[in-house]
Amino acid sequence: MTTPTVTDWRGVASEDQDELSEKVSVLLRDRSRRLLGDLLTPHRKAIALLTAIIVVSNAAGLAIPYLVKVGIDAGIPPMLKGTGPGTLITVVGVIVAAAATQALTRQAFLKLSGRIGQSILLELRRRVFEHFQRLSLSFHEKYTSGRVISRLTSDIEAIAELLQSGFDGLVTAVLTLFGTAVLLLVLDVPLGLVALIPLPLLLLFTRWFRRQSAIVYRRTRETVALVIVHFVESMTGIRAVQAFRREPRNQEIFRQLNDDYRDANARSMRLVAVFMPGIKLIGNVTVAGVLVYGGWLALHGEITVGVLAAFLLYLRQFYEPMQEISQFYNTLQSAGAALEKLSGVLEEEPGVPEPREPKVLTGARGRVRFEGVRFAYVEEMPILPGLDLTVPAGQSVALVGATGAGKTTLAKLISRFYDPTEGRVLLDGIDLRRLDELSLRRAVVMVTQENFLFSGTVADNIRFGRPDATDRQVREAAKAIGAHEFVMSLPDGYDTEVGQRGGRMSAGQRQLVAFARAFLADPAVLILDEATSSLDVPSERLVQRALRTILADRTALIIAHRLSTVEIADRVLVMERGEIVEDGPPDRLIAASGRFAGLHRAWLESLS
Amino acid sequence: MRPWRSENRLIPRRSLDGMPPDTSSPRRPLLSSNSLWRMRSYLRPYVAKLVFIWLAALLGIGASIALPLVGKEVIDGPVLHGDSGALLPLGLVALGLGVVEAFLIFIRRWSQIGPVLGLETRIRDDLYEHLQRLPMGFHGEWQSGQLLSRATTDLSTIRRFLGFGMLFLVMNILQLSVVTVLLLNMYWPLGLLVAASAVPIIVVSLRFEKRYIKISRQVQDEQGDLATLVEESAIGIRTIKAFGRRHHVYDQYDDAARKVYDTSMDKVRLSARFFTFLEVIPNFTLALVLLLGALAVGGGSLTLGTLVAFTTLMLQLVWPIASLGYILAMAQESMTSADRVMEVMDTVPAIAGGARTVERPRGHLRFEGVEFRFPGADRPVLHDVWLEVRPGETVAVVGATGSGKTTLTSLVPRLIDPTAGRVTIDGHDVRDLTLPALREVVATAFEEPTLFSMSVRENLMLGRPDATEEELDAAIRTAQAMFVYDLPWGLDTRIGEQGLSLSGGQRQRLALARAVLSRPRILVLDDTLSALDVETEALVEEALRHVLREATGIVVAHRASTVLLADKVALLAGGTITHVGRHQELLTDVPEYRELLAQDADLDPSEGALR
User: Fold this and answer.
1) Mind listing the pLDDT tens digit for each residue in A273-302?
2) Which of A137, A230, A452 lies closest to B235 in CB terms?
3) ipTM
4) Distance between alpha carbon A254 and the CA centroid of its chain, in Å?
5) CA A484, CA A505: separation in Å to the nearest integer?
6) What residues 319-358 of chain A have any CB closer than 8 A to a CB of chain B?
7) What CATH architecture is B365-600?
8) pLDDT digit string, tens, across residues A7-36
9) Do residues B423 and B367 lie in contact, with contact meaning Cβ atoms separated by under 8 Å?
C-alpha cells in the first residue's frame, strides 16, 4: 500500500490506517476540534454561566479548609483567654455558609453541565444519523453496515461517557489543582513552595502516563474489536460452523484473540498499577516534608498551628485530582478517537449530491433515457462503457445477460444510487442529478433480491412504501400481489411482528412483503432486480399474474435470470459487457437466431 | 479515586429486555449471589495470590490511617513543647509510612492483574466453547448481540467487581470501622457526632442506588431501542433509499433519541442531587466538629493536635461512606451479569454427539417416521416423514414455500434433532454418531451462504483442511466459481464481513464449492443455485452431476432444471412426504407437483409478449 498524502485524509479514509503521520494527525485533530467547536457554539451562554458557577463552587469548597485554619488560629486563642467563642462562632457560620454555597452551586453546575452534555449528544446523534442516511449507497457499500453501527453506538457512547463523568471530573480536578496551589502560597509562601516542589515531577510523571496510556489504550481497543468481530461472526454463522466442524479451529482463534485482549488489558492495568501508587508516593513524601518543615516553622512561631492543619487538609485535595485526571484520561482518549471518526463521517460528501436547485416532478410519466452513459467503479474497468437507451413511458423492459454484464448497474443508475461517470440519465427529460430527491423516490422504486424487513408488524413493513396508506390500502396492495393469503396465515395476520430481520418468514415470504411494499408505493418506474428469484413457482406465478396488471400503466425494468419473468415484458434487452447486444420484443427475438433465442431454447428444455 | 470510572465501556450495553422470551425458566430473584459464587472455581488457581493481595490491602489501610496520627504527634509533641529533636524522627516515620502505603498499593494493584484478567479470559473462553456446542435451536432464539453483550459487557462487569469492587467494599467497611473507633477513642463526643453523620449518607446512598439502577436500566433499554433503529437503518439502507424514506426513518430515530435525552436528564438531575448531598453533609459535620472541638480545646478536654488529626481523619471517611452505595450497586450489577452469563452456560446442549463413528460410510440415508416441531408450536413442521436414499442416489425435495424443506435437510447433519422418529445413516441413528464423524459424512451448501472473514482458500477448505490445490481447483470449477482467481489477491483474498464483499451468486457458488470440496458421502444442497443466472446454473448442474454420481445427495429444488439432477423426487406437502417418484411420473400423475414445477402450466408465453 502506498503512503497516502495529506490530501487523501479526507472523510473516513484515516480509519483504515494504523500509523498516521504527524501532519495527518494534526489535520485530524483540527477537524475534531472544529466539530467540537461547532457543537459547543449554541451553548456559549450556558457555558459562560457554567464557568462562573464552577468558579464560585470551587472557591467555596476550597475556602473550607482555610476557614478551619482561621477557626483554629483566631477562634481558639480568645476562648483560651476566656473572651468567649464569638470569633469561633462567626467562623463556623462562614463555614456553614460556604458549604451551603458550594452545595447549591455544585448542584446547579451538575444539572447545567448535564443538560449541555445531553443536548450535545442529541445533536451529534441527529447529525451523524442524518448524514449517514444522506450518504450514497456507494459509500455504504464500501463502509459496511458494521462500521455505521459502531459509529452510531459505541463512538457516541464514548463521547457520552466523557460528557457524563469526565467533564465534571476534569473541570473540578483542574480548578482544585490550581486553586489549591494558589491558596497554599497565600497561606505561607515558604511552606507553600516546599509543598509545591514535587509539582513539576508530578506533571512529568502524569505526562509519561498519558503517553503510555495512549498506546496501551489503543491496543486494548484494537484487540477487543477483534474479539468482538470473531465472536459475532461465529455466532451468526453458527450453522456453517457446526456443519463444517469448524469449532476446534474457531476455539483456537478465539483463545488467541482473547489472550491478546487479556495481554493488552494487563499492560494497561500494569501501567495504572505503577501510576496510582506513584502519585500516592509523591503526595505522601510531600506530606512528610511539609510535616517536618511546617512543624519546624510552627515550632519557631513562623506559622501557626492552623496553617499547618490547613496545609495537611489541602495537600489531600491536591493529589487526588491528579489520580482523577488520569483515571478518566482513557475516557477522554476514546472520546477523542470517536470524535475524530465521527468528524470524518460528517466530512464525507454524498456521492450523489442533492441538487442545488431541485426540480420538482409531480405526476411523473416514466420516460427513461440514458445519454452516452459511462460508468466505472474503477476507472480502468468501466462497467458501462457508453450506453444510449430510451425507454418510453409505460414500457416494460426485461434485461437479460450473464452475471457482471451491467444489468444491476443500469438499474442502480436509474434509481440514482450512483451517478454516471460520464453522460446523463433522464427521467421525463430531467437529468436525475437535478431532480428533487423526493420526486425521484416517488417516481422510481427498486425491488431487489435482498428485501429488508424492519422490526414492526407486517402491515408496518408494507406501509413503508407509503407511510400515509390506510389499513385497507395495505391489504389491497397485499392482495394485488398475492401476498394476502400467506399474511392471513400468520399468527396475527397483518399485525404479526416480524422478528429480527424478517425472523421466521421464509425468503419467499419476505419477498412477497417487499413486492406489496413496492406496489403500495405506486411508482411511475418500477425496477425489479432479481426480485422473483427466491419465490417458488406458484408464488412466482401469482406475482407474475399480478405484475401484468401492475406494470400495465408504468415503466418497468425487469432483471431476471429466469426467462419466465421476461415473458411479461414488451421489450427485451440482452446485455453483454455493459453493452446492449440485442434489443426487441421477446417474440421477435425468439424467432430470430440471436443470443436470446438460444437462451430461450435452453430455458424451454430445462422445463421439460 | 472512583473505581466505577476507571474503565470504559467499549460496547453499548444491550437492553435487558431484549432477551428472548424465556417462559420456561423461573423469574430469578433480583439479588442472587449464587451465579457469582459459582464462578469462584475460576479463582482457584490464584488462591495464594489472592491472600497476598488482601494482606497488602489491609496493611495499606493501616498505613493510610496512621499517617494523620503522626501529624497529630507532630503538633501535640514538638510544636507545642518546642521539642525540635523529636521533629525529625517523626518526619521519618511519616515518610516511611508514606512510602510503605504507596508500595502496598502498588503490590495490590500489580498482583491482582493476573487473577482478575485470568478469570475473565477463562470464562470468556469457556462461554465461547459452550456457545459453539449449543445447537441451532438455541442460536435461532438468541440474537448474536445478546450473546456478545454477555461475553463482553457482563464479563467486564464481573471482572470489575471481583477485581476492584469487592476489595473496596471490604476495605471501605474496614476503614470505616477502624477510623470511627479511632475517632471515638480520641474524643468520644465528636466521634459520636461523626458516626451519626454517616447515617443519613448511608440511608440516602442506599435509596439513591435503587432509583439510580432503575433509571440507568431505563436509559439502557432506550439506548437499546435506539441501537436497533441504528442497526436497521444501516442494514436496510438500500430499502430506505429505494423508497426515499430517509425522513421517515430519521423521525423514528429522532423520537427515540429524544426519549434517551429525557431519561438521561432525569438521571442527571437525580445524581446531581445525590452528589451534592454527599458533599454537603461532611462539610456541615466539619463545621460542627470545629465548633465543638474548639470549645473542647478551650475547655481543655482536647488537645490542638488531636483536633487537627480529627478533622483530617474525618475527611478520610467521606469517600468510603459515599462509595458504599456505588459499590453495592456494582455488586448487584455484577450479580445480574453473572446470572446472565450463567443462564447461557447452564443451557445444556440439546444436541450432543454419540459415541459411534462410521468406518467407510456408504451414505445410506433413511428418515424413519420423523417429526419436527418448534418448541411451543402447536403444529409440527414435519410429521411422519419416511424417506430412503440409497448410497449414490440423489433425491430432490420439492415443496411450496414454507413446507419445511430446509428443516428436513437440517436434520441430517443434526443442526436440529427430530422431535419423534429418527434419521439413520448406514443403519446408525445419527444421534449415536459423534458429531465430528457425522458432519464429516454430511456436507451442506446453504441457500444463504455464510462466508467467514478469512481468505477464499480458508473459506473453501473449511470442511477439509487437507485438500490439495488440484482438489481445490476442481471444486472451484464444479461450482463455476472461477471468479475467485480474478480477485485482487486470488485465493488469498480476504472475504466476509471484514473483507471484500461478494454478490449473492458469488457467495452461493463459494458455498457450493466448499461443500463439494469436503467430498462428503452425503451432500445436501439446500436451494444452492437460486441466485445464479441460467447459463451458470446450467454449467454448475452439469458439473454437479459428476459429483452427485459418487455421493448420496439431497437437493432442495424450486426449478425443474435442478430436479433433473436427482434420480427421484420427494414431494413435501402439508408437513410430510406425499409422493416419491421420477420427475416425469409425478408431473403427469400429481397435479400438486405440476402446480409447483411446471413453470408455464397455465402461462401462455405469447400472451405477455404480445401485449
Assistant:
1) 999 899 889 988 998 898 889 888 888 888
2) A452
3) 0.82
4) 26
5) 14
6) 320, 323-324, 327-328, 330-331, 334
7) 3-Layer(aba) Sandwich (3.40)
8) 445 566 666 555 566 677 778 788 888 998
9) yes
